[in-house]
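Design request, tokens follow.
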């Protein structure tokens, strides 16, 4: 588990459009349950006050509830990893 116990790194299925924008489609939670993202409501640069970390904040709808999903960019551009997705534990 990450040092910050309120930050949960999650697997996310993502679509990209022709402009390179990311659209998250599903989230795999730490218990291996997969949740379909019903809708992306907004995306903006932000940080997580609760879990810590900075990146892009996606406000999403999952099962009728508004949630926050963050994309934390990797600072090492040549590491083969562009970043990781996380959510704050409720």
């Amino acid at each position: 588990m990450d040092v910050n116990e309120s930050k949960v790194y999650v697997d996310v299925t993502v679509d990209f459009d022709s402009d390179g924008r990311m659209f998250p489609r599903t989230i795999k939670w730490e218990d291996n349950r997969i949740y379909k993202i019903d809708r992306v409501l907004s995306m903006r640069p932000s940080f997580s006050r609760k879990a810590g970390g900075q990146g892009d904040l996606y406000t999403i709808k999952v099962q009728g509830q508004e949630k926050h999903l963050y994309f934390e960019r990797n600072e090492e551009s040549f590491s083969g990893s562009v970043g990781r997705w996380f959510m704050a534990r409720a």
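Comment from the thread starter after seeing the answer: thanks! The first strand starts at residue 7 and ends at 16.
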